Structure formats: C-alpha cells, structure tokens
Amino acid sequence: MKTEDQFTPVGEQTKNVIMTGIAGASFGLTYAYGFEFSLAIGLAVGALFGAAIGFRISRKPLKMRYPMALLRRILMAATLLLLTSFGYSYLLDQQISQAQMRWAAVLPLLGWTLLIISIGIAIASLDELQRRIQTEAIAIGFAGTAILVGGYALFQFTGLAEVNVGIVILVMSFTWLVGKLWTLWRYR
Amino acid sequence: MKSRLKVLRAERDWSQAQLADALDVSRQTVNAIETGKYDPSLPLAFKLAKLFDCSIEDIFTPDQPEEKK
Fold first, then answer.
1. In this predicted complex, what is the ipTM?
2. Residue of B25, B27, B52, B53 to mutate, interface with A, max A Cβ within 10 Å
3. Distance, CA of A116 to CA of B51 (rounded, Å)
4. Structure pTM?
C-alpha cells in the first residue's frame, strides 16, 4: 500500500492562481466600490492578493481529501456572488425605476444559488466523519445565530439599531466557525 | 466501542494516511476511530473487516458487556 506525496501538477497550479486571482479581483472591486476608492486599485490589489494565495496553496497543498477542483468551483460561485452583489449596488446607485430595482435585486440570488449548490457538492464529497463535523457545525451555527440575533431583537425596543441581513450573515459565519472548531476539537 | 485498529495497522506497518487512502476516508477519520472518539458506520466497518481479512468483531468490541435481564 503506497501513498504518493502531495504534489500539485503545473496545470492545476495555473488554474488555482487564475481562479484565486479572479476571486481576489472581484473582492477588491466590490470593496473599492463600497468604500469609494479607485476601482482600478481595488481590482489590481485584489487580483495580486488572490493570485498570491493561489500560488501559496499550490506550493503547499491544503490537507484535505477532496479535489482542488471542488474548492475552485466554490471560489467561482463566490466570485459570481460578489460580482452580482457589486452589480446590484451599482444599479441601485443609478436612476432606475422601481420595477428595474426589483429585477436588480434578483441578481445576487443567482450568485447565492450557485454558491449553495457548489457547497452542497463539496459536502457530498466528504467522508462520514467530516460530514458529521459539518452537520454539527451547521447546527451550532443555526442555533447560535437564532439565539444571538433573536436575543438582540428583544432589546431593539430599548433603542438599539435594527438587525440587518449583513449582520445576520456575519453572526452565522462566526457561529459556524466556532461550531466547526469545537467539533474538530472533539474528534481530533 | 473499543477497537483493535491501531494494533492491526501496526502489524501491517501501515501509516494512518495509507489506511485512510485504502478506505477512501480522511486520516482524521482513521485517527478518530483508533482513539475511540468516533464509531464507524456499518459499511465502513465492513470495509475495514475486508481490508484486514477478519470479522468486524475481531476489530471492534463493545465497551461494556450487555446487561442480563
């Protein structure tokens, strides 16, 4: 029984660098637009940063058993989500009608759908323990978000700011991460 | 559940990574089974038994004997 040393072929390395570069560029673009600084700088810095991460990943592959192509697919969907979100923000800033705004609001949903599908495919490729870890992490993330956001909502009558979707996603990501670290520690 | 996986693996001089590759699972899963932190599913237990050419009972034993009624 033999296992080969982890080695990333040149073709895979190039794909990684290109994909992470594109993802970085779209992140930079959205960030630059949101914080109102030069879009060109945002694009360039994001692309360079993303490509550097892709290069680093290729030089020293991540310790995971599912193929890099799955990670690239998630990155591709995340990039599309960023670009559609950017498109949505850009269109809202233009003088468009109410009906056109409704159509613009559908744009990010396409990105979200693709992201969810790609994450679903990645989870399906995990083994039974990794799937259990993910399930427990998602359960902790879901319950944690419900408690934190629900608890916060109870205090809104005291004058606290209203909860927005961005905060909910942030809380969900944070509690999922806590859940993942906790379950990884349990099965370490 | 107690497992003899570590012993069986050592007898064959296999690393956790090699065993994980043969079972098509992650090294983390092999480690969790060996340390008793995770009980494998029945299909994975059968896979292990086939790989080590023994029965499931030769690899895994319950923590405590069943109570007699």
1. 0.83
2. B25
3. 36
4. 0.69
